[in-house]
Amino acid sequence: MERSLSFEIVRRFARGPTVEARAAWPLSGDPVTVLFGPSGSGKTTVLRALAGLDRPDAGAISFDGEAWFDAARGVFVTPQARGVGLLFQEYAIFPHLSVSANVGFGLHRLGRAEREGRVAELAERLGIAELLHRRPAELSGGQRQRVALARALAPRPRLLLLDEPLSALDAPTREALRAELRHLLESSGVPAVVVTHDRTEALALGDRLAVLVEGRIRQVGPVHEVFSAPADVEVARVVGTENVFPAHLSRLPDGLALVRAGAAELVAVDPGAVEGDAYACIRAEDVVLEPAEDAHLSSARNRLAGSVVSRRDEGPLVRVAVDCGIRLVALVTRASAERLELAPGRRVLAVVKAPNVRIVPRAG
């Protein structure tokens, strides 16, 4: 039987929404699952229930075949007995303790030598060995993050839970630390669940995406698949970017980059530090559809010939999927759709400006 995390969480709030979230995914393979959704969608409620910090009103939680919670049978396993590691938004590092004492805080049951050995091992792995005698006030945002992660990993948890782990940082630091956090999570060997409402963080950190909309998980799948093929309109509105492709980058002259995604090649603005494997992201609104016979009239560098796969009318707008070596979704007005006679099989030209091909790095 495959090891998995499964849950059905019902949590009712007085004068507030009801969270009814149900999902399951394997613990082996892809290590990082992102709980993604807008503020108030229920992400932190689910995370706290998984941690054992909150007791749901109904439902069940199972980890690797072990019941952590079962309302019908009266089962509730404490956070300590679940063996989870927690990383909060503000990191919650004790200001009066040294880095060494913070990392070893959850190891009080170990003997001194064993505790010091575990702290030293993690400090070396996470690159904080030279910081062990410092206090949190002497650390940068990135250093505090590594200390908090080391403390969460110290007791050898079975599951890591991270609540908006980058939100406490300023924008430049957050940008710099995304890839580093992904590498640390991947190298930890511990399955992780990360809560975020930030699309870029979801792409950079996650292998799997679970999208919450109004307290319910509407879709679970590989990150790029969920962004590229939302299960419904609500998910599409939440993820915001319908076109996300695993891609490979190589540099071109004049500050541009060549992006190879599937059978397609696109030109993007060179993102700078990113090279090699990454994600290419294009908003549906930035894809312009033109008649295939107008290919010779366009001067745009990204001109992809293809055929309409599907058309879905959404009020005054029409969502059109085009197969042009990659499955590209465009959002056009109803008038444009009628003018172009868009229907499955129709040959069209998908045009995307280079600045609209956004590149997101992928560590590991």
Offer a quick outline of the entry.
The chain is an alpha+beta fold. It is built from ten helices and 21 strands.
Strand and helix layout:
Elements: E1 4-12, E2 18-26, E3 32-36, H1 43-51, E4 58-63, E5 66-70, E6 75-76, H2 79-82, E7 84-87, H3 99-103, H4 112-125, H5 141-153, E8 159-163, H6 171-188, E9 192-196, H7 199-205, E10 208-213, E11 216-222, H8 223-228, H9 233-239, E12 243-252, E13 256-261, E14 264-269, E15 276-282, E16 288-291, E17 302-314, E18 317-323, E19 327-333, H10 334-339, E20 347-352, E21 358-361
Parallel strand pairs: 3-9, 3-10, 7-8, 8-9
Antiparallel strand pairs: 1-2, 1-4, 4-5, 5-6, 10-11, 12-13, 12-15, 13-14, 15-21, 16-20, 17-18, 17-20, 18-19
Structure description:
The strands form 4 sheets. The protein has a 6-stranded mixed sheet, with helices on both faces. Helix 5 runs parallel beside helix 6 (171-188). It has helices at 43-51, 79-82, 99-103, 112-125, 141-153, 171-188, 199-205, 223-228, 233-239, 334-339, and strands spanning 4-12, 18-26, 32-36, 58-63, 66-70, 75-76, 84-87, 159-163, 192-196, 208-213, 216-222, 243-252, 256-261, 264-269, 276-282, 288-291, 302-314, 317-323, 327-333, 347-352, 358-361. It contains 10 helices and 21 strands. 40% of the residues are buried. Helix content is 24%, strand content 37%. The chain has 2 domains: 4-243, Rossmann fold, CATH 3.40.50.300; 244-361, OB fold (Dihydrolipoamide Acetyltransferase, E2P), CATH 2.40.50.100. By secondary structure, the protein is of the alpha+beta class.
